[in-house]
């Protein structure tokens, strides 16, 4: 769940780290996902005033949950995607939100996912991934004329 300020909470079945709480234990009440509640450290007073900038907070602007993974889009000034859980059964599970470096070159605007496939968009690009397309869920068409 996301509150109006972009802070995230999760609860439920915790396998594969899908709750983003650094544990695989089940949670029966909403728990804060730490990364999205942290306050940035204060500026270093030993630096000259013109160099004292406080880092912006990391807050979600959109979230989606799949079968065993969750995703959060972070807006200004980061425009990035965080994920936790596991997206493929042979892959590594992340027990806490981790920035998705596979899409780090795009300014991510939105994300959606299902049981095995994920799709996210930037201003002019649609990015999809998941296991080999079975029912056209990745949007690659029938395979004719598609570069592989």
Cα separation of the termini: 37 Å
Tell me the β content.
25-35%
In the sheet with the most strands, the strands line up as 3-4-5-6
Question: What can be said about the biggest beta sheet?
Answer: 4 strands, antiparallel
Q: Measured on Cα atoms, how large is the radius of gyration? A: 18 Å
Average pLDDT, rounded to a whole number, is 86
In quaternary terms, these chains amount to single chain
In terms of per-residue confidence, which ranges show pLDDT below 50 for 5 or more consecutive residues?
none
Order of helices and strands: EEEEEEEEE
Number of helices: 0
Shape: globular
Structural class of the secondary elements? mainly beta
Share of helix, binned:
under 10%
- Count of individual beta strands: 9
